[in-house]
Amino acid sequence: MDKNAAISLIGELSNAFGPSGFEDDAVEVLKKHCAPLGRIEEDSLRNLYVYRNENTGDKPVLMLDAHTDEVGAIVQAIRPNGTIRFLLLGGWGKSSLPSSRVLVRNRLGEYLPGIVAAKPVHFMSNSERAGASYEVTDLSIDIGASSKEEAEKVFHIGVGEPIVPAVDFECDEVHGLLFGKAFDCRIGCAALVETLKNLTGKELPFDIVGVFSSQEEVGERGAQVAVNKVKPDIALCFEGAPADDTFTEPWLAQTVLGKGAMLRYMDKSIICNPRYMRHAVELAEGENIPVQCAVREGGGNNGAMINLAGNGIPVIVAGVPVRYIHSSNCIAKYEDFESTVRFAVKLAESMSEALLGSL
After folding, report:
1. Which of the following is catalytic: 23, 70, 194, 216?
2. Mean pLDDT across the stretch 149-154?
3. Is 216 in the active site?
4. Domains of the chain
5. pTM above 0.85, yes or no
């Protein structure tokens, strides 16, 4: 795997504008990088399908999934003072919102800078200074307008326009660290692309369809459509997985930077097929690929929708650990990304009808 090219791809995807329902920019980046890898299709939900060049159409199907949307927001209304009332698209952490820089798309398709307004301490009441809780609808985004008319006529802001964090990707090459927004799940999208690249030219007993699915953050909606189109026999979901190593006791931390892909036994939405999980863990151990296993109390992912489709589809989740997920700024490690791709390639190569029959 070309490290520089992979980091460039992660950065390009991270910087792409694409909250749930508005994934177009991220999809265009993926089209460009996937064009040499297979036949491409797109549906009206902005799901992107890549049918590997080597597919024959008469084999069982392995579906590789990663979602293209990021947590963001949408313009609900414009206040008389020109600030924007907004609602969240997905679970953008409420505590990280005040003072965040954002980009607001206007009706002309331009991306305007704005700030989630934080009231200066000078104007706070005693309860506000004490850290009283607030609702998202109590917040505003300030783009610099001074009236509703100015926001609409001069800045061309309209109801229903999308909003994302204003963060540029950076790579600390000395320490192998990646900084940016939308690593959930653009880092997974990059892993899927690199997996397809590494499988190019290889004859496998399974056909492979890559699916870059939409609207995961608002209820795994794209995956529900995609799985019915692809009709896979087995699947692997890539994710940007919330790292727990900076706030969990070491003995309980299960998604740690630098320890490889997180393989999730369960979360609130799914219990992954235990026989498939056993195969995956033993495969990683045999290939000396670092992975870490996790059992989660909360969370959810596209695997839950894939698992319940058809007659039940065996699926596992490989997550690249990401610190501070669902906030404006994330941190990941390149070596975990690389381990995730290596794992996915070996998993695809290990597919067999005998394995499928044992699950």
Report:
1. 216
2. 98
3. yes
4. 3-70+181-358 (3.40.630.10), 72-165 (2.40.30.40)
5. yes
